[in-house]
Request: fold
Amino acid sequence: MSEPKKVRTRERMLASAADLLSTTGSGGVTIDRVLRESGAPRGSVYHHFPDGRAEMVTGAVALASEAMISMLTAVAEQATPQECLDYLVAFWKNRLETSDFTLGCPIVGATIDDGSVPGLHELVAGTFDQWHRLIAESLTGSGVAEARARTLATVIMAATEGAIVLSRAARSTAPLDDVSLELRQSLDAAVAAA
Amino acid sequence: MSEPKKVRTRERMLASAADLLSTTGSGGVTIDRVLRESGAPRGSVYHHFPDGRAEMVTGAVALASEAMISMLTAVAEQATPQECLDYLVAFWKNRLETSDFTLGCPIVGATIDDGSVPGLHELVAGTFDQWHRLIAESLTGSGVAEARARTLATVIMAATEGAIVLSRAARSTAPLDDVSLELRQSLDAAVAAA
Reply:
């Protein structure tokens, strides 16, 4: 019984750290706040994160990155790029609405960073690269030429991430809806031209 | 001589606070850091910002907001929406490149916030609203119908802000270039259909 419980404590702490990254950026992820949010006992910090705060922040980015990659991979396997976009937008709308617009994207939060966590910048850049590759592959899989797929994947990521920030500020998912509508048109045109 | 010097000190402190907002979010804007970055004497905090840190953060958002509004208004008066977009993208590319990709958008930084500054959220929402209105007006001024101008203005803001984050992560302005290319096509189509 002890191993699953340990895993759960570690994952609960990382999930809290990822939420704090979303809300406040990396500077807001402190050991005290993670303990408070996750309800984990203080001893678990040194047990699960012997390198302390930095390990907690990078672990949270890795967890959030892998969760998105699993989701994108699973959806892209059985859906058109347009359906992938709908799924992605619905995911972010739900996250914003169920958190009273406090939770945005943890990887964007990790980009807003003062450089206090070694290796964080490379991890963030690598995460965005992987997400970008998955979206571009979904487009080339629908016959879109490689160069156009790469540009369009950048726009999908940029516009979605930007709309999450605007939606958070407006406490309304209208920016995400507007962006989704426009991106849908670009996707339809790119796939039709393929 | 004393009034201009006082104004300069206050503006220098606010400019430092706005840069810190861009880099680290609102949590990274502390009185000590602003003093260190601006080189202002400690006594100037209580002189210029009697309400302390919160007043410094909201003042920095107001300064950054007004600077962008002045720029957008001046450019929109004598340029097409496409030229405005080029100007905006060039401005952000220059800011990223000359800061070694540490300075993004201070208003996005202010959105990544833990709620410790009263009124900050409303100020951020109001700023995005004003920017949005200016961009939408530039589009309707070129004959684009109002509903389409509003949606397109949201996409321009979201994609540009998102691309600034991606460019910062990639330490490259390629995401901004890609987004600029795609937005240009949408703008051309919208203006041509007008």
Notes: Chain A touches chain B at residues 23-28, 104, 108-109, 111-114, 121, 124-125, 128-129, 150-152, 154-155, 157-163, 165-166, 168-171, 174-175, 178-179, 181-183, 186 (CB under 8 Å).
